[in-house]
Specification:
The complex is a heterotrimer of chains A (85), B (354) and C (213). Chain A contains four helices and no strands. With 85 residues, chain A is mostly helical. Chain A has one domain: Non-ribosomal Peptide Synthetase Peptidyl Carrier Protein, Chain A (Orthogonal Bundle), CATH 1.10.1200.10. The radius of gyration of chain A is 12 Å and the shape is globular. Chain C is α+β, with helices and mostly antiparallel strands and 213 residues long. In chain C, strands 1, 2, 3, 4, 5, 6, 7 and 8 form an eight-stranded mixed β-sheet that branches. The chains are: A mainly alpha (85), B alpha/beta (354), C alpha+beta (213). Chains in contact: A-B, A-C, B-C. Chains B and C meet through helix 4, strand 4, helix 5, helix 6 and strand 8 of B and helix 3, helix 5, strand 5 and helix 6 of C. Strand 4 of chain B pairs antiparallel with strand 5 of chain C.
Chain lengths: 85, 354, 213
Amino acid sequence: MEQLIQKLKEEIIDALNLSEMNPEQIDDKAPLFIDGLGLDSIDALELTVLLEKKYGLRISTAEEGKKVLYSVRSMAEFITANGKA
Amino acid sequence: MLADKTGIRLTRDEKIAPGPFYASLLDTSMLQDQFATLDDPGKFTRFEQLALLSVHSALSGAGIEPADPKTLFILSTTKGNIDILQKENERKFGKERVYLWHTARLIQHYFGFRNEPVVVSNACISGVQAILTGARLIRAGLYENVIINGTDIITEFVMSGFSSFKSLSNGPCRPFDKTRDGLSLGEGSGTIILSKNPSHIDSHVIVGEGFSSNDANHISGPSRTGEGLFIAIEGVMKRSPVTVDFISAHGTATSYNDEMESMAITRAGLQTVPVNSFKGYWGHTLGAAGVIESVMCVYSLREKVLLHTKGYHDPGVTNPVAVIDKVIHREISHCLKIASGFGGCNIALLFHKK
Amino acid sequence: MTNSGFISRFCSIRNNTVVVNNKTEFFRPDEKPEKFLTGVYQHFAIQYPKFYKMDILSKLGFLSVELLLRDTGLLEKYAGHKTGIILMNASSSLDTDRRHQESILDRANYFPSPAVFVYTLPNIMIGEISIRHKITGEGTFFVRERFDASFLVSYIRQLFDTGILQCCITGWTETNGDDYESVMYFVEKTDRPMDGIANFDAATIQKLYDKVK
């Protein structure tokens, strides 16, 4: 799990062009979309593309999206639960 | 439209999307047959055929002399010949065809317009902005006639983009409705001729004040408070305090757009003015939308008819606005066209009956 | 002619050189556009992490306006809705259009990116500048084969004369492959500029554009 979280952080920084950040600066339990990283709706869509592209996982509803994209940890749990870790 | 028909239907076209989708598309063979009455369809792209046909029919009988130094052509589009980026089209038509200025030049030369054309490319407000630009240039005394064409086509480029934005509806779009779940894309072309010379005018409609404003909030999501659109509507109403009889909304049927528009309309105190969206008939035609929908505003003023919002059944916005749900025949004098788009841009423009 | 306005500031970014009001502020030869622009961002110590999310056209436009307005206090003189952004180029958003097209070439590897697609409209650059500087006036994007000084001047004069705008950021911002060029002007309606450098007319705008080309 910890390894997956580390990998996810790097992928997120790359996918969202967070060039001035490094993985250590991302708290894996903190909400991604409230303050935190200053992410917006386009970033949320981009993260769903990331899950699909790298892990073959689709988010089907907005509700599910909110839950899965809550934090790096919740993303990692979603990936693990679907056996894609 | 009076018969409550729509061009939006479930379509399967591998060239546009991997799976089935709802959109309002023009039949290619029909387009080519029509274009063949004008010229050789093999020499022109799909976009060019559509734009040339529309400008041609608008010019027929309008009495405008294209070579007149006081005549200008404006093209309104978001993506023009974007399908030239596909290798087989690039090979057939050449690389240069992808440039919007090139497309405008091609139309210019086809009809023999003397002046170098202008392209307005301002996302989904392009069409209304192009009409306002034309009216301003005439008012400034620079031109006497301005021909404005708005065209966009639906390609894999556009379909895949809107799909990645998750903004497409699962059925024909339902503007302002409780169950609306996104927009339907459409393709089309519209032309409006503005003229100072009364003998060229048969619509008895004049272009009034217009105002553009930016939300300065987000590049894709509309302002939650409708700030930019509110500034635009207020900008128009302050300069021209008429009683608006009818609002032609952008009404894309995305959750955010319709919510934002109704908020701005309410903030401007226009919530009791009948409002419609034309998107349910032929979808969102992007850079063409503002021109095509303005043509419909002129039609409404001239024919004394308020057309209903196709796809609308039950109120679905926080600030209730007076969505037109059935055709009404009555005298109307002042129409307000509004539009909003990516990049945070918003516009409001008045049309008056003389 | 009523008040025709003044050009208060002028900034160009082209040939890997940043020039503000005729003074060269930064030069770094032999770098590709994207790398050069990141260098400009870092050199002037601009703090705006969203810069990295922008496409190349927006980066170029954003930096031009940053350097055009830097330490001038010019915008504070005007209400946001009285300030406009009227820009022009030849290639629209073609660089990003090509990127989006590449992402949909292969059906087996079909991942169009919303963060790319959103930049396939040239006026997104106007949106980025508006957000950065809280500019809520008109933002309009025109496409023409070449820089057209007289069109921009006639269009903006009309906005000044009718009281719609009091000041305006205008110019040419173009990117296409390895070519890029941005020339931006800050124009004020006032006839008594604090430190205006020239009259706002087509000949002057053209002359400044042609300089160092």
